[in-house]
Design goal:
Distance between the termini of chain B: 35 Å
CATH class of the domain at 1-70 and 189-240 in chain B: Alpha Beta
Strand content of chain A: under 5%
Distance between the termini of chain A: 25 Å
Helix content of chain A: 55-70%
Largest sheet of chain B: 6 strands, mixed
Number of helices of chain B: 9
Radius of gyration of chain B: 18 Å
Number of strands of chain A: 4
Strand order of the largest sheet of chain B: 6-7-8-3-9-10
Order of helices and strands of chain B: EEEHEEHEHHHEHEHEEHH
CATH topology of the domain at 1-70 and 189-240 in chain B: Rossmann fold
CATH superfamily of the domain at 1-70 and 189-240 in chain B: P-loop containing nucleotide triphosphate hydrolases
Oligomer: heterodimer
Shape of chain A: globular
Number of strands of chain B: 10
Shape of chain B: globular
Structural class of chain B: alpha/beta
Order of helices and strands of chain A: HHHHHEEEEHHHHHHHH
Structural class of chain A: mainly alpha
Strand content of chain B: 25-35%
């Protein structure tokens, strides 16, 4: 039981990701590769919410705030330094620290789940409005002009650490993003299999019991939120690097609701679910974006409603349940529990 | 009183106009097994919530092994060594029986030792065959055992049991009584119970609560003879 997080599914997913990472650049053209790169970066973002919400039980409407903070941190630092290594590191550290501060007030203030949602959403919108109103020469951080709603264009992209002149080409960037995706995925699984991770899941199941067993619920939630913030920041960094551009839209309501839809569609309480949900929805967004027939947001809304009403557990858990039923009563697990009394 | 495990001094909590626990002075000696009885609404479960920090008293102090733990956080009190089985079993429905015990044992033990404790407790509460099943599907009686086992796995110095025999069959009640006596060889316990049959099986000293206050404290035999106790249980003096 102690190894139950390391299922064959986890291994399979990891292998699949590695195969895709190594194989795709051989068969896909440059355009497709760029598409897949941003998909993978967004999958990292989906994983961050999948972890924070699906395992930590923290419904965060502010994942895009942490994502955007990572993107802007990368942008500002990279413009100022000209070398991207420190920028990339800061893009993870700054959102993590911000999440820790915000989380401290939320969790040590014992806010209920509803207020948590309200606060994280408000923080996102504050960032959105704040960055939108930074147009003009007065708003600059060092050499970096923030440019308000126009965003920051022509950002320096990622270079080989220590060599600012040696920029990563699209294929290398794809390898890098895929490597981060695999590291985050495997890392989160390892974390969930650890003592810490198991307490986190227990907290999601029953906070009061965890406290009665002597576990500090506030601290565990704070750590989950902070780790989630760092991962979202990493995704933001990769996003900013990918387009060499960042605008306040990273903080928009569309962005923040999108992440939640990914997780719901893919399946709450799994890690592969958010990845699959993210891939499907991004593919749809890209495809729908090229046609004029129907509004993309409208279709997203319909999909979201359909999932909430018809497949509330999401794709992955529903498929797993179907698979378990197909295997019949021989499948081990809770279904076999009987009451001898 | 140097050998007191737990002492409360004038412990009170007020909810609006209702004083659910009224100036309770309570002392529990080392390895004592105390039964706490009283009609519904007497304040027994509220007292337990005060002792575990789930509620903060409006007045009074709680001293556990010489440390004032009044107003401490629930997890901090648990870390000091007070474990509780709550009235309605408080469990992780999605997790297995084994995971429950492991989580409790692992907090104070290295991984290997925690695993050994888990198996040992599973054996002791007779749930080895159900260890891999989700707790959410178990009957109330079995859930009581899982929670009891979880508390035991954490090995707290003082164990509070709130209605441990509720929802159990006669045989299960007898088994629980046996287990409580066994735990009492090494641990101090306070047991809240309505089932007088069960109380009789385990009790030495009994504290009777009524309307938030301690009414009387005596041996089981004396309590059974006590006219006031009989009256409040039969409702003559208007217990709720």
């Amino acid at each position: 039981m102690r190894r139950r997080r390391w299922t064959s599914g986890t291994v399979l997913t990891t292998v699949a990701m590695v195969v895709i990472a190594l194989g795709v650049p051989q068969v896909v053209d440059q355009f497709g590769l760029l598409q897949l790169t941003i998909f993978a970066a967004m999958c990292i973002l989906a994983l961050s919410l999948g972890f924070v919400w699906g395992y930590g039980g923290i419904l965060c409407f502010g994942q895009s705030a942490l994502f955007g903070l990572g993107a802007y941190t990368y942008a500002v630092t990279a413009v100022n330094f000209g070398e991207s290594t420190a920028a990339a590191v800061l893009a993870v550290v700054v959102p993590a620290v911000f999440a820790a501060l915000l989380g401290y007030f939320m969790f040590y203030g014992r806010l209920s789940d509803v207020y948590l949602g309200v606060i994280t959403l408000s923080v996102t919108l504050i960032f959105f409005n704040l960055m939108n109103s930074t147009a003009g020469d007065a708003y600059r951080v060092g050499k970096a002009r923030l440019n308000g709603f126009n965003g920051m264009p022509s950002l320096p992209t990622l270079n080989v650490p220590g060599d600012a002149a040696r920029l990563l080409d699209p294929t290398e960037t794809f390898y890098l993003v895929m490597a981060f995706l695999v590291i985050v995925y495997v890392g989160l699984h390892a974390l969930l299999a650890s003592h810490f991770g198991r307490v986190v899941v227990a907290i999601r199941e029953n906070e009061a019991r965890c406290e009665l067993l002597g576990y500090d619920v506030r601290l565990h939630k704070l750590l989950v939120f902070t780790i989630g913030g760092g991962i979202a920041g990493l995704a933001g960094c990769l996003f900013a690097d990918w387009g060499a551009f960042v605008s306040p839209n990273v903080f928009s309501l569309t962005m923040t609701s999108q992440i939640i839809i990914w997780v719901i569609v893919g399946g709450l309480g799994t890690l592969v679910g958010p990845i699959i949900g993210c891939l499907i929805m991004q593919y749809l967004a890209t495809t729908l974006g090229t046609q004029q027939l129907a509004n993309t947001n409208l279709i997203f809304g319909i999909i979201f409603l359909a999932f909430v009403l018809l497949v509330p557990r999401g794709i992955v858990p529903s498929l797993l349940a179907l698979g378990a039923r197909a295997l019949g009563a021989r499948a081990p697990g809770p279904a076999r529990v009987h009451d001898p009394a | 009183m140097s050998d007191a495990v737990l002492q409360t001094h004038g412990l009170s909590i007020r909810f609006g106009g209702v004083e659910a626990v009224r100036s309770v002075d309570f002392t529990l000696a080392e390895r004592e097994l105390r039964c706490l009885i009283g009609p519904n609404g007497a304040g027994k479960s509220t007292l337990f919530k005060l002792l575990t920090g789930q509620l903060k008293p409006t007045a009074g102090r709680i001293v556990f092994r010489g440390h004032d733990i009044t107003g401490h956080h629930t997890h901090a009190i648990a870390r000091r060594g007070i474990g509780i089985k709550t009235q309605v079993p408080s469990l992780f429905d999605g997790l297995t029986v084994r995971e429950h015990l492991w989580l409790a044992a692992r907090r104070t033990n290295p991984a290997e030792r925690a695993r050994a404790i888990t198996e040992e407790i599973l054996e002791r509460i007779g749930l080895t065959s159900l260890a891999g099943g989700a707790v959410g599907r178990l009957s109330h009686g079995l859930r009581q055992w899982v929670e009891l086992g979880t508390v035991l796995a954490g090995n707290p110095e003082l164990i509070l049991l709130d209605e441990p025999a509720a929802g159990m069959t006669h045989d299960e009640v007898a088994r629980t009584a046996e287990l409580v006596r066994e735990i009492n060889r090494t641990h101090a316990l306070i047991v809240v119970e309505h089932d007088m049959q069960f109380v009789r099986m385990i009790a030495r000293t009994v504290t009777v609560m009524h309307q938030g206050a301690v009414l009387v404290e005596d041996t089981m035999d004396q309590i059974m003879k006590n006219a006031t106790v009989r009256d409040i249980y039969l409702g003559k003096h208007g217990g709720p």
